[in-house]
């Protein structure tokens, strides 16, 4: 009878279990490069599990429920928001990690944190802030800044190097240091293309028959089928390999859907909200640059270490869609003004 080994902590037992089932290419929890500020290990959780929990309980994560994915302030309850998108990415990334025997906890933590720095009004907001700021603005870099600097009153979440890297490198142009980070990058693309198609159909902008038929013939004619096709293709293309990849055929079909969505949905939707979003963000940016003392106290504290423009972008990018509209109205619309005229 095999003697059962006793471990001093639950964390040590989990790390030992990882050795028995993780791929040689997976990132072991015990092998993390660590945190900027050293901390006493948790008795019950691995370092990546702690990161996941810190992200879930962060203020930036909770705000994702009121941030636009594609459609600004949609009326229906079933449109995708940044929060539901993030949960979709997490689920797909975990599925990929499980199939390839990668570290699910690391993949989940990266996925949950990858969009924390997204602006109000979706990618339109990101483009506007990038134009307004001389530093430029990219949501992946801002997501890292959120977990490094902004959360916890300026202390940040002190996440592990692997989670921080995965958040920064999750864009298609990125080069994550771990296969778990690669899994999240693909999960992000798979999720947003397919669920944006659902939203466009729900909004009456598209019909399923409008989609490019070559892409549909490869990926499938339903959202769940397309997602399953992509995940299965990643498994076949990546099993036992030091990478996470899609086959050329499936990647080409996904890119075809992406190009179609930019032409038929994203560009048209952006036009509809571009003017309003640009007017609001531009005027608020100018106001807070001139009246920096009007920033909320947590952001005033950041001015001790960062320049005014950086901190104003921190504040604006952290707003939800509704809060941005509310602040704009408070600053620039007379209190006795209503949609019907002056009351």
Q: What does this 3D model show about the protein?
A:
There is one protein chain. A hairpin with a 2-residue loop joins strand 1 and strand 2. The C terminus is likely disordered. The N and C termini lie far apart (85 Å). The protein is 60% helix and 1% strand. Helix 2 packs parallel to helix 5 and helix 4 crosses helix 9. The chain is built from 15 helices and 2 strands. The chain has a two-stranded antiparallel ribbon. With 343 residues, the chain is an all-alpha fold.
Topology:
Blueprint: H1 10-21, H2 47-56, H3 59-63, H4 82-99, H5 104-113, H6 122-132, H7 139-150, H8 161-168, H9 179-202, H10 213-219, H11 223-238, H12 248-290, H13 297-302, H14 308-318, H15 321-332, E1 337-338, E2 341-342
Antiparallel strand pairs: 1-2
Global geometry: flat
Q: Tell me about the largest β-sheet.
A: 2 strands, antiparallel
Q: Rounded to an integer, what's the Rg over CA atoms?
A: 22 Å
Structural class: mainly alpha
TL;DR?
The chain is mainly alpha-helical and 343 residues long.
Annotation keywords:
15 helices, 343 residues, mainly alpha, two-stranded antiparallel sheet
